[in-house]
Amino acid sequence: MSNMRTARIQRTTSESSITVEIDLDGTGKSTIATGVPFYDHMLTALSKHSLIDMTVQASGDIEVDVHHTVEDVAICLGLALKDALGDKKGITRFGSAYVPLDEALARCVVDVSGRAYLVHNGEPEGQQYHLIGGHYTGSMTRHVFESFAFNAGICLHIDLLQGRDPHHIVEAQFKALARALREAISYDEGMKDTIPSTKGAL
Questions:
Q1: How far is the C-alpha of 184 from the C-alpha of 188, rounded, in Å?
Q2: DSSP letters spanning 151-166
Q3: For 125-149, what is each residue's pLDDT tens digit?
Q4: pTM for the predicted model, two decimal places
Q5: Are 184 and 117 in contact (CB under 8 A)?
Q6: Residue among 31, 198, 18, 175 at smallest CA distance from 113
Q7: Which of 114, 119, 110 lies closest to 183 in space, CA to CA?
Q8: Mean of pLDDT over the chain
Q9: Is a pLDDT exceeding 70 seen at residue 2?
Q10: Alpha-carbon distance values, 171 to 24, 52, 179 (Å)
């Protein structure tokens, strides 16, 4: 198994310029600057609780809407995770977590399967319209998870089980994703140098 699970992704379009660096075997250190303060807060939490070191530098047309920048960062994070995982030998593959934040409770289950899929349920009606932190709209949360999962090649189930405060609803989900990822990408001593799939590939 590789000792270096790192990746660097750069992506530039007419709408944004993104650089992402990650280390899957880090300590949860991060430097995040997307121009969207609440998104920075969520990605900092994702790094901290997954123990994935992250550097994210982004500039985009946020004066139009944060959508492009938020989406493009999620795309790059997904590509970086896929790249850093390499052949996936020895990983646990599956991970799950329940995370509360006051009244909010989120559940996340991850399969580093090589097959992209998202199931996202439970947010209360109206959450998608909330403007959080002055920039980030609630509808972006599902879009982040979708863009991340599809570019990482993972199967991702996220369910909000309880929640009322819009900030708490989003943060509980990001933290649940972090903890589930932490388990799924960790090494399983029982797997050694094998790929955790009956097909021999993920």
A1: 9
A2: HHT-EEEEEEEE--SH
A3: 999 999 999 999 999 999 999 999 9
A4: 0.96
A5: no
A6: 198
A7: 110
A8: 96
A9: no
A10: 21, 17, 12
